[in-house]
C-alpha cells in the first residue's frame, strides 16, 4: 500500500478545493484512476507525476519524494558477469538496505526482463559484462524506467567519464564496500526508503 503518496495527493487536491472528478478532468484520466492513487493501491508513473504537479500547482519534487517513500520494498539489482562479485556484493547490499528486495544477475538479458516486470529503484552495474557494455545496459534500464538510479561498478577509473554520459547517479571503484554503498545512497537522483541505519 502506497499510503504516504496517497495521503500527500489527497491533501494537495483538497487543499486546492478540487474533487477527484475535477482533478481527473484536468489530468485527462478516469476518476477511478485518481481514486486508486488516493487509496494507495496504485502509483502514477513519472509522466503522470509531472502532470499532477502541473495540475495541482505544486513542486514536482513533493510528489516524486512521496512516491519514492511509498515503495515499501524497493527493488535493487546488481549485475556482474562474475559470480564471485555477486556472492560478495549481495550481502553488503542487504546489510545497507534491509527493507529492499535485492536480486543479482550475471546476464544483462535477465536483468532487463526483471526490470520490465518490476520497478527497479536502484541498479549496480559492472561496466564490462562480457560482450555487453554496462553503459548500454544502463541506457536500456533507463528507457524502461527513467527513475531507476544506476551506479556503475568497475576496477578501472578511466571509465568514469563514459559512465556520466549515460544518466547514471553514481560511480564506484571496486572493491564493493558498505561505506561505499552508503555514500552512493546519499547521491541518488531519486531517493527511496532503504530501511538502513542512516534513515
Detailed description of the structure:
- Helices cover 50% and strands 16% of the residues.
- By secondary structure, it is α/β, with parallel strands linked by helices.
- It has two domains: 3-69, lambda repressor-like DNA-binding domains (434 Repressor (Amino-terminal Domain)); 75-185, Rossmann fold (3-Layer(aba) Sandwich).
- It has a five-stranded parallel β-sheet with strand order 2-1-3-6-7, with helices on both faces. A two-stranded antiparallel ribbon has the order 4-5.
- Strand 1 (75-79), helix 6 (83-96) and strand 2 form a beta-alpha-beta unit.
- Helix 1 runs antiparallel to helix 5 (60-69).
- The protein is elongated, with a radius of gyration of 18 Å.
- The protein starts with a helix and ends in a 14-residue tail after the last helix.
- The mean pLDDT is 86.
Describe the structure concisely.
The protein is of the alpha/beta class. The chain has helices spanning 3-15, 20-27, 31-39, 46-56, 60-69, 83-96, 108-117, 134-144, 160-164, 178-185; strands at 75-79, 101-105, 120-126, 128-129, 132-133, 149-154, 170-173.
CATH architecture of the largest domain: 3-Layer(aba) Sandwich
- Could you list the spans in which at least 5 consecutive residues all have pLDDT below 50? none
Q: On the 0-100 scale, what is the average pLDDT?
A: 86
Predict the CATH topology of the largest domain.
Rossmann fold
Number of strands: 7
Number of domains: 2
Largest sheet composition: 5 strands, parallel
Order of helices and strands: HHHHHEHEHEEEHEHEH
The helical percent reads 40-55%
- Inertia-based shape: elongated
Please give the alpha-carbon distance between the first and last residues.
Answer: 20 Å
CATH superfamily membership of the largest domain: Response regulator
Identify the CATH class of the largest domain. Alpha Beta
Amino acid at each position: 500500500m502506497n499510503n504516504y503518496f496517497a495521503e500527500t495527493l489527497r491533501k494537495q487536491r483538497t487543499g486546492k478545493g478540487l474533487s477527484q472528478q475535477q482533478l481527473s478532468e484536468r489530468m485527462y484520466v478516469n476518476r477511478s484512476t485518481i481514486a486508486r492513487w488516493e487509496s494507495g493501491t496504485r502509483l502514477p508513473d513519472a509522466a503522470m507525476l509531472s502532470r499532477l504537479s502541473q495540475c495541482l500547482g505544486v513542486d514536482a519534487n513533493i510528489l516524486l519524494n512521496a512516491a519514492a517513500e511509498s515503495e515499501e520494498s524497493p527493488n535493487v539489482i546488481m549485475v556482474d558477469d562474475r559470480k564471485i562479485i555477486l556472492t560478495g556484493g549481495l550481502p553488503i547490499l542487504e546489510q545497507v538496505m534491509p527493507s529492499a528486495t535485492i536480486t543479482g544477475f550475471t546476464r544483462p538479458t535477465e536483468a532487463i526482463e526483471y526490470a520490465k516486470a518490476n520497478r527497479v529503484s536502484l541498479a549496480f552495474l559492472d561496466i564490462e559484462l562480457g560482450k555487453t557494455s554496462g553503459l548500454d545496459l544502463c541506457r536500456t534500464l533507463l528507457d524502461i524506467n527513467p527513475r531507476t538510479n544506476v551506479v556503475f561498478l568497475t576496477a578501472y577509473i578511466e571509465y568514469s567519464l563514459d559512465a556520466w554520459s549515460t544518466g547514471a547517479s553514481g560511480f564506484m571503484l571496486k572493491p564493493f564496500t558498505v561505506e561505499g554503498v552508503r555514500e552512493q545512497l546519499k547521491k541518488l537522483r531519486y531517493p527511496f526508503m532503504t530501511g538502513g541505519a542512516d534513515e
